[in-house]
Specification:
The protein is α/β, with parallel strands linked by helices. The protein is built from nine helices and twelve strands.
Length: 255
């Protein structure tokens, strides 16, 4: 099912954060949300998850009116700064991703164990399974929190800056995995700052400036020099990688 926003405007306190946002996000594709600091990216992805004011529809149903368990089974949300309030093992934390699929007080099923195993493998965290979360580095914790979301096998994955704490190898590995998940039919929405990584990973880009849409289009069109100049105030040089993708490389500012 499509994830759709139509004329979405959001105020937080006295400040208008998003202005008349309209977009239809499609399953089986990676959509990157980009924009300068304060452009409304986090508020938009929270609204898509039903956690901020505004009408967002999953198919014909409003996200904020779905039964909480149904919404949790359908939309997996990874916030920018995920908190862990108990010092549990990594495996126990990832198991929590299966809660929307389990009856109260029920033990883990064979399907649960398979989903947890796949989530640990997808995030390269199998070797961390027995460690306590408090012992992890920032990057390790970020991958474990993503594994918890993936264990729920949602139809949609919404991730706010999932690359922020990762080293380059794990950034590339994660983006490859997200592309694979989209290839399997999952809808993937990621907030990014890195233009090159967005160009490599995304099918579509929603580009924001001060809470307004600069562009919402396939990646090569959205990341044009004119659009990036308008959104970020930067000049870019376009280069092609070994796969023929056009990568925008920032080379200066026009501010």
């Amino acid at each position: 099912m499509d994830l759709t926003v139509t004329g979405l405007s959001v105020r937080l306190g006295k400040r208008a954060v998003l202005h008349d946002i309209s977009a239809t996000l499609r399953p089986g594709r990676v959509t990157a949300i980009l924009g300068a600091n304060g452009s409304g990216k986090t508020t938009l992805v929270r609204a898509l998850a039903g956690l901020a004011p505004g009408e967002v529809r999953l198919g014909s149903a409003r996200v904020d009116t779905l039964d909480p368990r149904e919404r949790a089974r359908t939309i997996g949300y990874l916030p920018q700064d995920g908190a862990v309030h108990w010092d549990v093992t990594v495996e126990s934390l990832v198991e929590l991703g299966r809660m929307p699929h389990r009856a109260p007080f029920a033990g883990l099923s064979a399907e649960d164990h398979i989903a947890i195993s796949h989530a640990l493998a997808a995030t390269d965290t199998e070797e961390l399974a027995g460690r306590l979360v408090a012992e992890l580095s920032g990057g390790e914790r970020a991958r474990v929190l993503l594994a918890r979301v993936l264990a729920g096998r949602p139809a949609w994955l919404l991730a706010d800056e999932p690359l922020a704490s990762l080293d380059p190898a794990h950034q590339l590995g994660l983006l490859d995995r997200l592309r694979a998940l989209a290839g399997e039919g999952m809808g993937v929405v990621i907030v990014l700052h890195d233009l090159i990584q967005a160009a490599r990973a995304a099918d579509d880009v929603l580009l924001l400036r001060e809470g307004r849409v600069v562009a919402f289009a396939p990646v090569a069109e959205a990341l044009s020099p004119d659009n990036l100049r308008a959104a970020f105030g930067v000049e870019v040089m376009q280069v092609r990688d070994e796969a023929g993708r056009i990568l925008p490389v920032p080379i200066g500012t026009n501010r």
